[in-house]
């Protein structure tokens, strides 16, 4: 296949999934000095525009329930090339989420609004980070945009 048709084919198939875990639905009102004042809806709308500019399809899902997050990860097999995940507090506690991500073997980037390493010690441990493609934290809503750019660039290189 020549380079142009290979690229065109890949563009059609790059499907990304953004997963947000517990309490991220409250972003905008929740501890604004840490998480900022932009709502999750606003963050996601900006991300959709960026994804479009990068020729990627983006779907999103938020849940406060660990089981629903795991179901969403499991259901994404076959339709998702890469995952962006802010697992909220489950980042620091959930071996089950880690197992789900490794189980589906879809590359993922870990995202946090805050810099988890400058906060309480219990937030320094992530059950997801060592298997992630990368981790972006501390830039507020821009963390998601940087993570999206990193994931897209990884997938484009992988498919070259
Ligand atoms: C967070 C950081 C977590 O420690 C916390 O439990 C969250 C949000 C962040 O985006 O900074 O809920 O994931």
Concise synopsis of the structure shown:
The protein is 41% helix and 16% strand.
Describe this structure in words.
The chain is an alpha/beta fold and 160 residues long. 41% of the residues lie in helices and 16% in strands. It contains six helices and five strands, in the order αβααβαβαββα. Strands 2-1-3-4-5 form a five-stranded parallel β-sheet, with helices on one face. Helix 3 packs parallel to helix 6. The protein is globular and about 40 Å long.
Give me the secondary-structure topology.
Layout lengths: L2 H11 L1 E6 L11 H4 L4 H14 L3 E6 L3 H10 L6 E5 L8 H10 L3 E5 L21 E4 L4 H17 L2
Parallel strand pairs: 1-2, 1-3, 3-4, 4-5
The structure holds 1,3,4-trihydroxy-5-OXO-cyclohexanecarboxylic acid (DQA).
Give the SSE order as H and E letters. Answer: HEHHEHEHEEH
Mean pLDDT: 93
Helix/strand-derived category reads alpha/beta
Q: Report the span from N to C terminus.
A: 11 Å
* Radius of gyration over all CA atoms, rounded: 15 Å
> Count of DSSP helices?
6
Overall shape: globular
Largest sheet: number of strands, sense, barrel closure: 5 strands, parallel
Share of helix among residues? 40-55%
Strand arrangement within the widest β-sheet reads: 2-1-3-4-5
- Enumerate the spans where pLDDT stays under 50 for 5 or more consecutive residues: none
Strand content: 15-25%
Write down how many β-strands occur, each being a DSSP E stretch of 2 or more residues.
5
Bound molecules: 1,3,4-trihydroxy-5-OXO-cyclohexanecarboxylic acid
């Amino acid at each position: 296949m020549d380079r142009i048709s290979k690229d065109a084919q890949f563009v059609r198939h790059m499907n990304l999934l953004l997963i947000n875990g517990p309490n991220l639905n409250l972003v905008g009102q929740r501890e604004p000095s840490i998480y900022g004042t932009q709502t999750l809806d606003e963050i996601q709308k900006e991300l959709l525009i960026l994804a479009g500019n990068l020729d990627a399809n983006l779907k999103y899902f938020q849940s406060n329930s660990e089981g629903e997050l795991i179901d969403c990860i499991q259901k994404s097999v076959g339709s998702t090339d890469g995952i962006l995940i802010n697992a909220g507090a489950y980042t620091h506690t959930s071996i089950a989420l880690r197992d789900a991500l490794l189980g589906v073997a879809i590359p993922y980037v870990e995202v946090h609004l805050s810099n988890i390493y400058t906060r309480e010690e219990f937030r320094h441990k992530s059950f997801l980070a060592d298997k992630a493609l990368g981790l972006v934290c501390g830039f507020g809503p821009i963390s998601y945009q940087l993570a999206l750019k990193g994931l897209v660039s990884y997938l484009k290189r992988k498919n070259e």
